[in-house]
């Protein structure tokens, strides 16, 4: 993917920082969620900067979608991550940012590609957060490049509409700690929730949570589910496309729930649902803000993949979700294979 | 403790999260203060949500008291703690939340009861923090249950009044660095302070410090005192009832001081005093915001209690505090014994 | 300052990130201490990376000195700071890193120079933290450039030796709470301390506190002193050279104390002393780890400097420190003037 020609404001941006103990699990692996948070921070900067290069209200680039992304190699405490973000397509009201994450071991000098992602942003006016601003167009290196971008734009637009039309997956009922323990390796056994009260330090320029903060929580709950299922060191392998349906405001309570949907020999697919409700405006009720599928793998001490225990599926709903997960798994596998054969 | 019948808003709330290295001491034991902070977060959410189910100003449930609580089993890094909070009594202007903490080893599946606590909250208007709102009543399962709640309410109210009436314990004079070093195992030897500037992340919906943040600092200083006295791995065993006399605002400097008051064969009682002062409104002076007694024990490598070095008491004041501590120690011991005999 | 020719490993490094509410004071001004922390993180990365390009033990670049630095313009929440670090001189056992901080308003596109700093690092073996490794030499663009670097190296070396030889300034005696309150605008009135327990998230690759973490605490306490003296919005204007005499290990309690030494019409000089002591090895006693002079100014609502109340000096020691501070103030003023005339 070569970059389109862009003006100064749309020029690539690089974020980098040392990974601290707080960023990693006990095995020293940096959480995928922290990588996603850095990716989103870079995307938000480059997008916001670009959308403010015209007259009109000041605005903030708000994340509406992250395309499917894979974690290509693990990152460790003490390594330096370099996140490069670049605007690669603009439509009238949205823009695409492509992001690359390199991890550098500053002791050995070794560098590796850790992640590649594509994010879609929409500029929201800071005066009125519901007003979507126009996006200044970028220049493309070639007509082909522009055309490819347009195709990606159309594809994600359709997919986002579809997701909206789909009946909302019921929120799983939280397990009562006094219930008898579930049978091991069932869906109910590993289902988990995190609940977080959105505070000022989750927000910057307006009073809404950054998409990166939400993704970090989602990855955290998916990690708990995966660890419960296989009792080993687990890491994020990939995340399916995430759509951010609705914004989450400061003062909301966010419930992030994860449950296994599908398990292959060496991977687990976890569905994560994010529901928000205002603490002080209870009458507004809970609403679904985000949902996504995370894939985790289990690693041994040398960071080699371990087999994963089979999932004990119970009931029709679990079976349906399992079958749907299997379809996604096989599609991804096929796509990886064909990408490889095309030498990509 | 069976739950009263409640509407949706008063329904139990469950918070859960993984314990990180930052939550624990070097031996891997999660600080009691972090458990207290989670307990308070759950209580604040469930209380705030309930108090906003009626018309009138939006309000926040502010912590005014935590009943005596015991740490029943140690929690370790990597474990998942589940905190369940439920409103169990309401008076006109306050409500009681009972909280239970389970710790789960997600690798082995083992669960244990880590803590049980009862907290009292008062709803403060977000428009005017000094205006106390009314609390919507909950429904009780039985008249007995309501009656028991009322008794707990009256008991804590009396105790809070008593604490207010008691002459304020003078802040221990900080050690003068030019003095010769104190003798080991004296009160002065292990007396410690932490001083912290209240920042945005210590507060959430209004500009006041969460009770949980204060309790975490209190536990931290008590841990330093205990470690200085016995030079071993120490953990929080219990905390006496804590009354939150006055609120602490963002921008205040908080001085948290701990000193040994009493030492038995296997436990240390540490008095912790919290004083706050505004940085920019010096004329208001320092004020005592909170005070409490923490009990710590010393553990060997297998988490078995170790003997604690005797306390060298110097002067009348230290002797008086030692004798008062001994009374509390014997009362607690007796109470634990009678609870046990009643099969609780 | 033009850059020397350097190999890949010594190439400039750029760190950048959004400023969050937690990074700033209530007026929205990002704390100078957070800028210093980012500067040190960039310096540590570029230094560590360079020192590991040779055979021998893996090592970490440990901060030993920061040259006098000025905060040229305020930075605000939501702005993006870009920190560029570059190795500009190497001696056998130390290296100089020059760092530049640009702040960018991503809404308006405005950029401003926020800080320029020079830091000295020494590579410590990760196997044995007391073993100082050799620094691989860099290539210089010209003999002149090398010569200038050598002069800076000699100058800072001499100054560090001098600081060591100087009798250690006694730690200011903490105020006794039973004393009557101090008179306003005296040294004693605004003297302040912070006390912090060093945790895992203050350290990365080894178990010692990062210099940047210490500088952040120092700036925080200096800010409290300044706010107490003039009750207004205050910001860091400059920091005199800081020498890091001794390392601070995980598990230490750090006492950071600040007191006014000199006040001019529009600025305050605050001396900050950092003392560390191990919690469990009390016999080792407290030791002075760092000391420095911070200069703060007071700002009105439009970020224009306000007059500062005069300092009421009491006793010989305070007068001596005041006179010494005045000498530093006049020297700095003269230097700024001559720099200006040289058009630098």
Automatic annotation (TrEMBL), chains A, B, C:
SUPFAM superfamilies: Thioesterase/thiol ester dehydrase-isomerase. The active site is at 25, 219. It is found in: Cytoplasm. GO terms for molecular function: carboxylic ester hydrolase activity; long-chain fatty acyl-CoA hydrolase activity. Its EC number is 3.1.2.2. It is an enzyme of class 3 (hydrolase). GO terms for biological process: acyl-CoA metabolic process; fatty acid catabolic process. Keywords: Cytoplasm, Hydrolase, Lipid metabolism, Repeat, Serine esterase. Residues 163-186 are annotated as: Disordered. This is palmitoyl-CoA hydrolase. It comes from the Eukaryota. CDD domains: BFIT_BACH.
